[in-house]
Structures are given as C-alpha cells and as structure tokens.
Backbone:
C-alpha cells in the first residue's frame, strides 16, 4: 500500500459524521485531522486534547469472589446451598 503522505499517528478516527451520522468517512487532505464524509460531502476535524483527571480516585473494586458472595447474600442465598 502506498500513502500519499505519511499517516498521522495522532489522528482520531471518528465512528460517524457529526452532521449526518454516516459511517462513510475517509481522511481528507484539508488538514492533519480532517475527515471527509462521502454522504453529506462535509469536511470536519476531530481533535483529542486529553482527558481530565477524576475529581476523586475511584474506589477499589471487590474481587470476583467477593462480588459473587455479596450478590448471593443480597438475594437471600446462604453459603452451602441452603
């Protein structure tokens, strides 16, 4: 495969056009982050600036065994199959 130019590793790949919701999207030469919608013929850009830090750290998740035991207890099941 031969590229017209080197691919941009920072280019985000949208799943649909923000204007018509089409999935017929192709990289455009308008800019490094531009996409061409073949359905509505619009060219748009998608930029990812980063992710904000969470206001508080997430609580640790219980282990699978503990989550199962908690679920069974909430539904009235007791250990041993009673």
Residues:
């Amino acid at each position: 495969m031969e590229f017209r130019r080197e691919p941009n590793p920072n280019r985000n790949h949208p799943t649909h056009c923000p204007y018509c919701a089409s999935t017929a999207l192709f990289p455009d030469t308008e800019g490094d982050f531009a996409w061409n919608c073949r359905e509505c013929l619009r060219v748009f850009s998608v930029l990812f600036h980063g992710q904000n830090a969470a206001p508080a750290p997430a609580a640790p998740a219980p282990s699978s065994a503990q989550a199962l035991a908690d679920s069974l207890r909430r539904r009235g099941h007791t250990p041993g199959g009673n």
About this structure: The mean pLDDT is 83. The first helix runs from residue 64 to 74. The chain has one helix and three strands. The CA atoms of residues 56 and 66 lie 24 Å apart.
